[in-house]
Amino acid sequence: MMLGLLVPSGVKMALLAGLVVAIAGAFWHYTIVKGERDAALAAVGALTVENAVQDETIVTLQGAVGEWQEQAERFQATLDQMATNQVAANKHARELNDVLSKHDLTRLSVAKPGLIRNRINRGTAGILGMFECATGGCDDDGS
């Protein structure tokens, strides 16, 4: 009450107006800061969801890469086996050519047609069997 006696009413109104303006400014600032905070939290939530999706995508892609590497290793093993089979087939073909070049097949086939036919049939069956194994059609025991 003593303050009321010493301070004129115009000053009281100015102080009251200043207090109202200060409270209004603080509320306005609080509202802006709260809105920015809510927007930032929403952005963090969206980024968290995007991060989770990206993590799942990375795991999926890593699994696919691992599978592709395994398939590439199996393919390389198949290529190596086929190269080995090709070397063996070429060696056998050279051996057969050497044997055939030493004989006159025309004269032999006229003289002994059964003998030549049987040998040619066995050789053809052997070559076809090797081809079948080279393309993965035979069992592990070679049959």
Walk me through the structure.
89% of the residues lie in helices and 0% in strands. The protein is mostly helical and 143 residues long. It has a domain at 104-136. Helix 3 packs across helix 4 (113-134). The radius of gyration is 47 Å and the shape is rod-shaped.
Describe the structure concisely for a colleague.
By secondary structure, the chain is mostly helical. It is built from four helices and no strands.
Global outline:
rod-shaped
Helix tally equals 4
H/E element order: HHHH
Strand count: 0
Instruction: Describe the main β-sheet briefly.
Output: none
Radius of gyration: 47 Å
Would you identify the regions where 5 or more consecutive residues have pLDDT less than 50?
A: none
What share of the residues lie within helices? over 70%
The whole-number mean of residue pLDDT values reads 87
Distance between the termini: 117 Å
Percentage of residues in strands: under 5%
Report the structural category: mainly alpha
Write the layout of secondary structure elements.
Layout: H1 2-6, H2 9-101, H3 105-111, H4 113-134
Helix pairs in contact: 3-4
Please tag this protein with its features.
mainly alpha; rod-shaped; 143 residues; 0% strand; 4 helices
